Amino acid sequence: GFCPRAAGHEPEMEELVNIERVCVRGGLYEVDVTQGECYPVYWNQADKIPVMRGQWFIDGTWQPLEEKESNLIEQEHLSCFRGQQMQENFDIEVSKSIDGKDAVHSFKLSRNHVDWHSMDEVYLYSDATTSKIARTVTQKLGFSKASSSGTRLHRGYVEEATLEDKPSQTTHIVFVVHGIGQKMDQGRIIKNTAMMREAARKIEERHFSNHATHVEFLPVEWRSKLTLDGDTVDSITPDKVRGLRDMLNSSAMDIMYYTSPLYRDELVKGLQQELNRLYSLFCSRNPDFEEKGGKVSIVSHSLGCVITYDIMTGWNPVRLYEQGLYEQLLQKEEELPDERWMSYEERHLLDELYITKRRLREIEERLHGLKASSMTQTPALKFKVENFFCMGSPLAVFLALRGIRPGNTGSQDHILPREICNRLLNIFHPTDPVAYRLEPLILKHYSNISPVQIHWYNTSNPLPYEYMKPSFLHPAKEPTSISENEGVSTVPSPVTSPVLSRRHYGESITNIGKASILGAASIGKGLGGMLFSRFGRSSTSQASEASKDSIEDEKKPVASLPTTTVATQTLPHSSSGFLDSAYFRLQESFFNLPQLLFPENVMQNKDNTLVELDHRIDFELREGLVESRYWSAVTSHTAYWSSLDVALFLLTFMYKHEHDNNAKPNLDP
């Protein structure tokens, strides 16, 4: 039952009626009906959201009347028409005229009065002087009172609620972690998450409307609860340019806190506890989430990416420092003593000292083993992270300064094991000054491969990201010299060719390989010249058997590649007649000759093919056509929250697990 709190006739009944709180907005908010307030469930909000009970609505706009007036009208209506059958058809003409029909009942309010012409024909009139004058004039002109100045009211909303109005079941939750600056603008992460949630709703309606599941975004506000140094930094801040200094203390100071061994653990524990609290709270309110295999992803921004990464991996510089000191101590203990004459008693005592140190070392190793096993048994987070999205992230710089260097495999495990997080994705704007790439930390030659460009949200039938071929940022940079007896002056070399625009990221690897090979065709010296000379002799009609044997020898180590489409373009010809065949022969074996184009940076397999990543990690937003790079450098770091492109990208990977069992299309380029 509902007890009208604004009527004021029976205040003692409010204490007797126990009304459960009502979940609204997909379970993100709760409504206290007795207090008339709405408040969020998963985060704190200072401003209370007022809630009113809508009973009487204005015709046309369907806006509810103020609750006090609505309650008074409702009580008067029930006293006159209780027990009568009300028409339930909402498709009737609600604005039909009632000319010539007198009011059967009237009720006076403070500034208005209400006339009932029938049970379902109710009109509200203003008692202001100007309204009375206008009403008198129009009635003398022959118009009715209702049609001249009355506002029709409806009891109940125009549409009835149905079971289909219930939101879809949440099968994927996303924790949104903020970076620096939260102290300066408390509640900013809540607003940013609301913008991201709104953008995701638009994308879901447009691209994922056929899904019966739902992705929910929850803000993780971890900064405001931390004490850190209290107000010590504020007390030592000079008063000159105080506004700028306070802004730096509230934003950039978080980076110094995190690099401090004294306060770092407090930041890590603050975020870790908040993540676990939100997950436990969500599971308690959605008991079927874990049973039905619900998934959890994390979207972190700026410094939040580094803290989240350290929580998942358990990286702790203090522990590493202690381990380094322990290893140094062991190394010093193993050093041989001075080779001098020692008495029997001194040597005996030294032997006992060695035995004691060896025993102490064994005990310390067992203690370290117990600590390590206890850490592995109790993970930092109560959930497995499905996707870890980094936005505007400096994580690569932190990892590089910690000694992470490129490896020889294309696995994500080199920086983040798959058993901890299934997928790592790094999103950044090309002009974001805080963002850095992660792929070159796994394979060095990916520094010359452009990141994957994120699709625009309004792109029709975009190519799936897993089928997008990598492309080079710049062709080979080796200096070349043109031989005098070579007549291929029209062939552009990789060095003399203009660098392709950064916005378009050049062509695919195959096409740039063609340009590089055409440039190598004009080289008269070196490995490229010899290769092309041998291919040229093999293409003539008067080739010898020795040349054929050499061609067969060169064919053997070349691995077969999938058939690729040859670009239809006019090829320059030379007097030697070898260019056509050499072009297509070397175009096929481009990936098998990486040392010709990139002798220093590439990592090769045993069959001399390029080592590729298991899956791409770096994804870059597209620049606008009229976008100023200088202005973007200022605004791009905070432009991810409301981006529809980012929302589509996030949902694409979150809904991806539902399509894994379907047959993948054949998109061989």
What does this structure look like?
Belongs to the PA-PLA1 family. The chain has 669 residues and is of the alpha/beta class. Among the domains are: 18-54, no CATH class; 57-81 and 102-156, no CATH class; 173-228 and 254-332 and 382-474 and 611-661, Rossmann fold (3-Layer(aba) Sandwich). Helices cover 36% and strands 12% of the residues. The chain contains 21 helices and 16 strands. It has helices at residues 13-16, 67-81, 129-140, 145-149, 188-207, 232-235, 242-250, 253-259, 264-285, 288-291, 303-313, 317-333, 344-377, 395-401, 509-521, 526-539, 545-555, 579-588, 594-597, 629-635, 644-654, and strands spanning 22-24, 29-32, 37-40, 49-50, 56-58, 105-108, 112-118, 121-126, 151-155, 169-177, 213-220, 295-301, 385-391, 421-428, 452-453, 618-620. The strands form 3 sheets. Strands 11-10-12-13-14-16-15 form a 7-stranded parallel β-sheet, sandwiched between helices. The longest helix is centred in the middle third of the chain and has 34 residues, at 344-377.
Defining traits:
disordered N terminus; 16 strands; seven-stranded parallel sheet; 21 helices; 36% helix; five-stranded antiparallel sheet; Rossmann fold; elongated; alpha/beta; 669 residues
Instruction: State the CATH class of the domain at 173-228 and 254-332 and 382-474 and 611-661.
Output: Alpha Beta
- Beta-sheet strand percentage? 5-15%
**Mean of pLDDT:** 74
Which structural category fits the helices and strands?
A: alpha/beta
